[in-house]
Write a structure and sequence with these properties.
Strand order of the largest sheet: 1-2-3-4-5-6-7-8
CATH class: Alpha Beta
Family: Belongs to the GGGP/HepGP synthase family. Group I subfamily.
Catalytic activity: sn-glycerol 1-phosphate + (2E,6E,10E)-geranylgeranyl diphosphate = sn-3-O-(geranylgeranyl)glycerol 1-phosphate + diphosphate
Number of strands: 8
Structural class: alpha/beta
Distance between the termini: 21 Å
Largest sheet: 8 strands, parallel, barrel
Number of helices: 9
Pathway: Membrane lipid metabolism; glycerophospholipid metabolism
Number of domains: 1
CATH architecture: Alpha-Beta Barrel
Protein name: Geranylgeranylglyceryl phosphate synthase
Bound molecules: geranylgeranyl diphosphate, SN-glycerol-1-phosphate, magnesium ion
Strand content: 15-25%
CATH superfamily: FMN-linked oxidoreductases
Cofactor: Mg(2+)
Helix content: 25-40%
Shape: globular
Length: about 240
């Protein structure tokens, strides 16, 4: 079965709680060449902030997904192509694996045709997401690879997401996880800031995610990461 993200090399994650850099507009962000925009963040999320970013991106020709950080911020909007809902495999509290999801399903009529989950492995202990979920980030490459394997083989996850949010991770960890995955897509996010860092991670991950850079440096810098990701994929396709 094919999924939209099978064709994605690069995603921009827009945090509705942060502003764009310099004179950048949402049009500029949508036209960087990225394959998809994912709207989400850990801290201070509200439905209103989510909605305003959806409205700002809706008219451009780029896939638009919401990544809700809790059930209260999910926005029902046809402008969205779908929802990517995190589950955190190494969370300290099972609420981040199943609890919030159970509450969400109780309180709403979930559009499962437009919803997929992302099986997160959170690796940077200093990130808000690690603190919030009380994640055990002390994981070796072998551990992360094993998490990836159970995500696919036991829990049937379509996406595994290695999350180093705020810092550039270890490419060997990403490589080890990729080796254990068969059909499941591997997302990598964290600290991608230029052509080389994008190229390095895109050699191992199926899709790389760029977050802070768009808010801190802007679209010029993001465009370089799109190029890095696309070049890595091209080189891989040519060598296959
Ligand atoms: C059941 C529903 C609808 C939602 C629950 C979803 C879950 C389990 C969320 C837990 C993990 C989480 C908060 C993911 C949000 C996306 C994310 C990791 C954003 C990046 O976070 P940071 O970079 O740490 O945060 P800031 O940039 O806001 O500091
Ligand atoms: O903000 P950065 O470090 O680019 O991380 C991207 C994304 O993985 C955050 O959820
Ligand atoms: Mg962040």
């Amino acid at each position: 079965m094919t999924a939209p993200w099978d064709d994605w090399d690069h995603i921009i994650k827009l945090d509705p709680d942060k502003t764009l850099a310099g004179d950048d507009t949402f049009e500029d962000v949508c036209e960087t060449g990225t394959d998809a925009i994912e709207i989400g963040g850990t801290l201070d999320m509200t439905r209103e902030k989510m909605q305003s970013v959806i409205d700002a991106c809706a008219k451009y020709d780029v896939a638009l997904y919401q990544e809700p950080s809790n059930p209260a911020v999910v926005v029902d909007d046809e402008a969205l192509d779908g929802y990517l809902v995190p589950v955190v495999l190494n969370a300290g509290d099972i609420a981040w694996m199943t609890g919030f999801h159970k509450e969400w399903v109780k309180m709403s009529d979930v559009d499962w045709d437009r919803t997929a989950t992302e099986a997160y492995i959170v690796m940077n202990p200093d990130a808000s997401v690690a603190e919030l979920t009380d994640a055990d980030c002390d994981q070796s490459a072998e551990d992360v690879a094993a998490y990836a394997e159970i995500a696919e083989q036991m829990y049937g996850q379509e996406i595994v997401y290695i999350e180093y949010s705020g810092t550039f991770g270890d490419p060997e960890v990403v490589e080890a996880a990729q080796k254990k995955l068969d059909e499941t897509a591997l997302f990598y996010g964290g600290g991608i800031h230029d052509y080389d860092s994008a190229h390095t991670m895109a050699k191992h991950a199926d899709t790389i995610i760029v977050g802070d850079l768009v808010h801190d440096e802007g679209v010029e810098a993001v465009r370089e990461t799109v190029e890095g990701a696309k070049d890595a994929k091209k080189a891989h396709a040519e060598s296959a």
